[in-house]
Write a structure and sequence with these properties.
Blueprint (H helix, E strand, L loop, with lengths): L3 H35 L2 H30 L6 H10 L2 H18 L27 H6 L5 H32 L2 H29 L12 H27 L8 H32 L2 H8 L11 H22 L1 H5 L1 H23 L3 E3 L7 E3 L6 H22 L12 H5 L4
Antiparallel strand pairs: 1-2
Helix pairs in contact: 1-2, 1-14, 2-3, 2-4, 2-7, 2-8, 2-13, 2-14, 3-14, 4-6, 4-14, 6-7, 7-8, 8-9, 8-13, 9-11, 11-13
């Protein structure tokens, strides 16, 4: 990049993001330490939510980039370069994930977050030990701290390796103009989509679904994929609009690009609703206790009275699906800048709420309670905000650093003119 004004802006934004990120991560890290010492899982969940939110965006843009390569899509070529900058967040997300892997090795209560990690932890509602739980015994070969950590390294290895090669070949094309780089990226993407889908599915099961290891669902990985795509498309739209109004994409990122991103946002809004409803409908219809309890604790406390999660459930139905669905049906929502940005911000906010709804609820042992447990209720804690803002600051700083290392758009890509002249 040669434009000194743009370089100055990017450096300023990157430095500010790094400072905010360091402060946020420090506050969330203090909460993490408090959670370990007091054996309170809630601050640890704050860290997990922060990781989940920004990782979902990074994985979403990685999915999008490979999908565009596989389908030889020409119109998003200039957007693809912005995706490649987002890849830079993945190594930092891996480093920030490491404290979660250390929990069973440094805590006096290894099962403070993932109950199955502690073979002597009391099960909710009784005195039975996890090690005497037949469901755990069947899963023990898979659900153990060492193998859990090994799998996390493998998942991030897949994420980072795919991102590294796709980014490297794209940046190299700016220098050499070699079409072979494009062919290599397409070949890798045809295999990489399968690898990424497998790794992200297993990661979602390990990190989020296994918080309630008794629960069964064959659709959980697809739910996570749908969430990643919605979050990535929304974040990309905001990112590109900012660059088109105050940065180097001015006059490059046009109305047609916004329209197509809006169409994809609509498609994945419907897909998310389809997956979420199908998972609920199948479990409701089968009515198997090992499955229905997961939804029951998101509705009532065991006494038939609605708890705070019931309200969140209703908000997801109307706020995360119906409202953006209806708005994105309108043409003007997809092309008028302030309307499209508004919907994108709305989706990101409700994506966080969706992560809350999937991650935080759980049965917490309380032998003084009538059921032997209580349900962890919805709340927004200061450590939640610190983790989301702090980890986000580190990710934005990584993106800004990447922006300084390459051309604003892939100038020698054979499809660049198609993308620049893209029209509805």
């Amino acid at each position: 990049m040669d434009n000194q004004e743009d370089i100055k802006k990017i450096n300023s934004v990157g430095l500010f993001a790094l400072i905010i990120g360091a402060i946020g991560v420090s506050v969330a890290g203090f909460g993490f330490y408090q959670g370990l010492t007091s054996e309170d899982a809630r601050p640890l969940l704050s860290w997990l939510i922060g990781i989940a939110f920004w990782l979902s965006i990074a994985l979403g843009v990685l999915f999008l980039t490979q999908i565009w390569y596989v389908f030889h899509a020409r119109w998003p070529t200039i957007i693809r370069r912005q995706c490649e900058h987002c890849f830079s967040a993945l190594p930092w997300l891996f480093l920030l994930f490491l404290p979660l892997l250390l929990i069973p090795f440094v805590s006096d209560n290894p099962g403070i977050l993932w109950k199955w990690m502690d073979g002597t932890n009391l099960l909710p509602g009784g005195h039975e030990l996890v090690q005497d739980d037949p469901l755990y015994n069947w899963k023990a070969a898979y659900l153990n701290p060492t193998f859990f950590a090994i799998r996390a390294f493998l998942y991030f290895g897949v994420f980072i390796a795919l991102a590294y090669f796709l980014k490297k070949w794209s940046f190299d094309t700016d220098q050499t103009g070699s079409v072979e780089n494009i062919h290599k990226a397409r070949r890798l993407s045809s295999v990489g989509l399968f690898l990424l889908a497998t790794a992200s599915t297993l990661a979602a099961i390990d990190w989020f679904k296994s918080l309630e290891y008794h629960w069964f669902s064959t659709m959980y990985g697809v739910w996570f994929f749908a969430g990643c795509m919605r979050a990535a498309l929304s974040a990309l739209l905001i990112y590109c609009v900012i660059l088109s109004t105050k940065g180097y994409l001015k006059g490059v990122f046009n109305q047609a690009h916004r329209y197509d991103l809006g169409c994809m946002m609509l498609a994945f809004t419907i897909f998310w609703a389809y997956i979420s409803f199908s998972q609920y409908f199948l479990i409701y219809n089968a009515n198997i206790p090992e499955e229905t309890f997961w939804y029951n604790i998101r509705e009532h406390n065991g006494d038939g009275v609605h708890n705070s999660w019931w309200i969140i459930s209703m908000l997801l139905i109307f706020g995360h699906f119906l409202i953006p669905f209806l708005l994105l049906l309108w043409y003007k929502t997809k092309v008028v800048i302030w309307k499209s940005i508004g919907v994108a911000v709305w989706i990101l906010l409700f994506h966080i709420i969706d992560l809350y709804w999937n991650i935080i609820p759980g049965k917490v042992v309380d032998l003084d309670a009538s059921n032997g447990y209580y349900i962890r209720q919805f709340s927004v804690e200061v450590f939640d905000i610190a983790a989301i803002v702090g980890i986000g600051g580190i990710c934005i700083w990584a993106v800004c650093s990447s922006m300084l290392k390459a051309e604003p758009i892939p100038i020698k890509d054979p499809n660049i003119l198609k993308s620049l002249n893209h029209s509805e």
